[in-house]
Give the backbone structure.
Amino acid sequence: MVQPTSIRKPIARPLHLVLGFAAWTAVVAVWFLATRSNLLPPLALPEPVGVVKAIARLWAEYDLLGNVFQSWWRIAQAFCWSAAVAIPLGLLMGSFPWVFHLVNPIAAPMRSMPITAFLPAFIALFGMDEGMKVGFLFFGMFFYLLALVVEQVNRVDHALLETAYTLGAKVHHVLWLLFRASFPAIFGSFRILYDIGWTYVILAEMVNARKGVGYMVEAARKVLDFERVYAGIIAIGVAAFLFRWLLTVLEDRLFPWQRPAREQSEPVISSAHGTKK
């Protein structure tokens, strides 16, 4: 029997499912009651049944799958560029203090600034086409990933480096060792990086887009079809969850020893992401 007051005591997997189902049942019940109470304006919160029907309309009439794929493709491009730049740069920052103190005075303030405020600047610099959207997403992902790479490189045990030097390793050998030792934890951050991408792609796609989930939601809002707006929001949440789950499965396959550490540290990482504006 599980004691509700037991601190950090694991619970059985079936109870996980029961609690999750109960939580979502409560959310839907509150949603249903709120729409029937007449306390909210008619367009503010559509009924759950209408939203379910709107999801079917998005699939049948508005190319839901194509819009989700277009958003994913923009995130994937920005993600690849972020990883290609942030991982080697973060490795150098974590390895050579002079590189860290050269780059960090610029990178640190950028992590604290609201990324959404840069959208007008990106429109001015890159126009309103595809390059602006990918560039904006890259900007939102890059500084988060850079800080995490530096942190994970710094966490590599220095005794490991001393052993490598004792065995005759050169600088490039030690850099490769640092990369290999820190990459499993860096890979774990990719899930949070995709969360960031899904957060900002909605804003980017509201500007001169013809495809994508952000465009889909904005088009529905312009015609005051709030059932379709809420259906789009749910579709975004499901898509983001599925891609996150796929990355989690891939991480478990590539780095199975990381799973216990991830389960303990993930709330901290998510909390840190929550402070990002």
User: Anything to note?
Assistant: Residues 265-277 have pLDDT under 50 and may be disordered. Residues 46 and 160 are 58 Å apart (CA to CA).
